[in-house]
């Protein structure tokens, strides 16, 4: 594989990048002194940059996406064949891949039955917000349109999705945001807000407090990540989800679970919520649905919700008046079908559980050695290590030093992530989300690199 990257004239590529590219989440001033990193090739869990340097990717394409790994010819071939046959038609008509993928997807999601296609996680979430608002107008006189979201969660980048951001820096300077979204407290037990034994139930009760304050009849939905991703890899404590479900049922509030990171397979089950025995009314997904081989997102809901848009055929406003042009691309569902087949045929859910346990074991061993690791947490191949300046006070480690750990790991040829410039004072968690194909040696290489970096940066 060595030298693969050098087959093109990359000088031209880098010049074009410097002259014309505007990278995501990047301060471009840095490129006055260093070259932008250009990733040119990927195989399995490894990628190569333009300079030919090899990396073990422990973040699945940077943002929890390439779940089945790079270079999957069977996905590329399925997409190629489908594109030649029929690439696109607006989704007011059906398509063979969308029907077949919907059926397969729903077979893994008991209690849900309808799939609405769009292009990104933000958009999939916006579809829910629109459905909830329309249900409020049609069935509750417009009064039940507020949507709750949770501190430290993230649901996307559009102005409305930012209104649901529990990571304040994401939304700063982009206001005014869409009104009608209300925040509930986070549930991270390591940073306790209540001194009680049944922390999970108490954290869920805090949602009920907000509902009562706002007025239960004004709230249409509660939107939560099953395991909070960019907000610090937060696995809700025991008892949390059961109580959340109870509260939603008590006040007739639709439960929307944002599986954009956890679906498909990231936590060792098809969806994150399936770890917790909870039954959602809406599930949204994007990144891992087709492992980044095509752009696709899905908003999945129940027959009961679907029926609410069918009950007044003579009312010109009664149906869901929404379209995403590229929701009609066939590449997405065809790639997603093959992605699901790979996960099943290669036993990747099982592998995720085994390798996830290894990540946590290795991180806990590092915690013994490095006092800077305050907390280790995760579910499946979705793990984090929170770094603190002092284990007793839990004062977060300095963000620049956390970033220095990530940079040191990168210099060793391993790519990891961190909670990045989203929660003031709390951008202190190292994030690991390797592809679901990871082997024991890969996991050990990742945690060995972190070990070395922590020694160099924190002593
Ligand atoms: N929801 C969650 C939990 C996410 O982590 C993200 C992106 O990171 C999104 C939604 C938004 O997805 P997209 O970037 O595809 O719009």
Automatic annotation (TrEMBL):
The keyword Cell membrane does not apply. GO terms for molecular function: pyridoxal phosphate binding; transaminase activity. Its cofactor is pyridoxal 5'-phosphate. CDD domains: OAT_like (cd00610). Keywords: Aminotransferase, Pyridoxal phosphate, Pyruvate, Transferase. Signal peptide: none annotated. Gene3D superfamilies: Aspartate Aminotransferase, domain 1, Type I PLP-dependent aspartate aminotransferase-like (Major domain). Pfam families: Aminotran_3. SUPFAM superfamilies: PLP-dependent transferases (SSF53383). Belongs to the class-III pyridoxal-phosphate-dependent aminotransferase family. This is Taurine-pyruvate aminotransferase. It comes from Cereibacter ovatus.
